[in-house]
Amino acid sequence: MDMFEQAQQQDMAPLAWRMRPQQLDDYVGQHALVAPGKPLRRMVEAGEVRSLILWGPPGVGKTTLAEILAEACQARLEHLSAVMAGVKDIREVVERARVAQGQSQRTVLFLDEIHRLNKSQQDALLPHVESGLLTLIGATTENPSFEVNSALLSRARVHVLKGLSEADLVEIMQRALTDRERGLGQRRIQVAEDVLPILARAAAGDARRALGLLETACDFTRTNADGETLDASALQDVIGHTASAFDKQGDHYYDLLSAIHKSIRSSRQDAALLYIARFIQGGGDPLDVVRRLAAIASEDVGNADPRALPLVMAAWDAYLRLGDYEGQRAIAHAAVHLAIAPKSNAIDQAWKQAQQFVACQPTLEVPQYLRNAPTRLMESLGHGQGYRYAHNEPNGYPAGSAHDCWPEDTPAQHFYVPTAHGQEERFARMMAWRAQLDAEADNGVASSNAAET
After folding, report:
1. Looking at the whole model, is its pTM more than 0.70?
2. pLDDT tens sequence across 196-237
3. 30-160 CATH choice from 3.40.50.620, 3.20.20.80, 2.60.120.10, 3.40.50.300
4. Distances from the Cα of 222 to the Cαs of 229, 231, 238, 267, in angstroms?
């Protein structure tokens, strides 16, 4: 390819590709990693790069950083995508790295979407990272601790990249507008003051998207005697509806569900609504929110407000009957109720304790008086004998430890301990009154007929 063809190809490339920084001083954002004295800055200054994994959302500069790091240590850079590459491709990279090593040249392997690497691919790569033949720089949008082989992960330090701030994105776009060689500087476009912040907000932390929006917006400039101008009126068609998209199987999906849950548990109804809106507008299924609300109703509200779970189930039914638009309000209704409701995790704790107790004593048997007796044979074996029908008992309660319904030779446990919050305070009084009836029955004392409520 001659110089003319290279220049032509450069002009045809997207603005985001043309504006990629060539050195660390041109890199915008990620100050915790690249500012003076920070880890990646020290690597570049020392010219010594070790295996690492760059974890962050799309468009924050993972690939660019890998290229800058490889250049800093004067290494060959090999690119592979875990989606496209197989074991054969990795072996070919290894062979080229061996040849380069014989010529005293290091090889850096940039592995995009490293979380997609399967076990056989990771096994093929690991020994060459261990030996130092390959310096691995992985890039991922997923939590590497869940997706990457622990042996490989132990040999590569993870660095977390954040979504770029609005100020960072504005700076990147300003550079593109003034750069005469790689950007749009030759057009001398006059941009209204509010345009770049609007585009930055629409890009949601993604530099690649910000530059793509800017490039498209510049197709809608107006020409007058002073040259080209770009104002906010041209942006609606460019931006349209900006969805805060996320990977439905990725960390951000679960982060948002976690934020919804924890906001409700913390009784912060407005924060809960914020994260629910963010989740749904990002493409999340509203039914996933309802399922989480149903879990919250039992786990974090419980009997402090016994209406909580039926209300969530009603919201679920309303969503299915009303459709998406009207149904989302029913979801919001239930979420606000859960957030404002008194909180108790007594049900959650009681259930966990019951499970743990049974796991330690798997052979517990049902006492004879609670067993089913549908046949004469079962009756003759004593099934059901001694059972006391609660509705025939004083106060509707068969008092006394002899009828505590626990397996024989197993001391009764108290899994459920109500809190003093909401309706559970009433439940606690009821349980205390029944405990008193048990004590009176065991001691042969006539029980009180007045139930405490």
Report:
1. no
2. 888 888 888 888 888 988 888 888 777 776 778 887 777 776
3. 3.40.50.300
4. 5, 9, 15, 50
